[in-house]
Design brief:
By secondary structure, this protein is α/β, with parallel strands linked by helices. The chain is built from nine helices and ten strands.
Length: 252
């Protein structure tokens, strides 16, 4: 379990995170949702260890990792721009992280992951030959082969649309279930957050506005900020969530 206890982050007089306390259960998918500048990316970076916190504690599996270096936390991130190596094939990108840790994943495990992500036909292609969805899956595979303890995704679907976006969402959910991998996703997209996550964390100006399951956010908004946010979400977003919840197509 990941726990944040009264986590604060300031840059000079600018307090970006104003006392964030929450828990993320093992194998849970949590989306962090909120307007630009609310502290989403800063929160992700403090968990990863890129950014030091000003105050508070970060606990993982009962261990205080507040001051533990990023490389020793065992977490990994998939960035919005994928950060793939253009001079390497898709396969070499995927296994790149195993160069210094060859025993982390066996060849069979790597092959199984490639199969799970439906990447087998693309292994010898260069990165520039891949579509956006294929690049996203390669980036996921590269992260997963090193078996992170926690998976962090920064706007993972922002460059995708339509069928490809839905396919990647389903693969993320499948991976979280099969690997029991705790996953935290930063997104600006309410539809993405509501249909992909077990729980959604809504941030506003560095504070938690609501942290709960999607159905509760829709049916029992905790304050005016969430209520006003709901008004801006189109009816199609709500219908998409309901479709995902009950498994019946409501939109034509």
């Amino acid at each position: 379990m990941l726990e944040l206890k009264n986590v604060k982050k300031s840059y000079g007089k600018n307090e970006v995170l104003k006392g964030i306390s929450l828990d993320v259960k093992d194998g849970e998918i949590v989306s962090v949702l909120g307007p630009s500048g609310c502290g989403k990316t800063t929160l992700l970076n403090t968990i990863l260890g890129i950014t030091d916190i000003t105050d508070g504690k970060i606990i993982f599996d009962g261990e205080d990792i507040t001051h533990k270096p990023m490389e020793k936390r065992g977490f990994n991130i998939v960035f919005q721009d994928y950060a793939l190596f253009p001079n390497l094939s898709a396969y070499k990108n995927i296994v790149y992280g195993l160069r210094n840790a060859p025993d982390v994943s066996t060849k069979e495990e790597v092959d199984d992951l490639i199969e799970l992500l439906d990447l087998k036909p693309h292994m010898e292609k260069s990165i520039i030959e891949l579509s956006g969805g294929q690049k996203q899956r390669v980036a996921l595979a590269r992260t997963l082969v090193v078996k992170p303890k926690l998976l962090l995704l920064d706007e993972p679907l922002s460059a995708l649309d339509g069928v490809i976006k839905e396919s990647i969402k389903e693969r993320i959910k499948t991976i979280a279930r099969e690997f029991k991998l705790t996953t935290i996703i930063v997104t600006h997209d309410p539809e993405e957050a509501l249909t992909l996550s077990d729980r959604v964390l809504i941030l506003n100006k560095g504070n938690i506005s609501q942290y709960s399951v999607p159905s509760e956010i829709i049916n029992v908004p905790s304050n005016n900020f969430v209520r006003e946010a709901l008004k801006t979400w189109s009816i199609s977003v709500i219908l998409l969530f309901l479709e995902a919840l009950i498994g019946i197509r409501l939109m034509k």
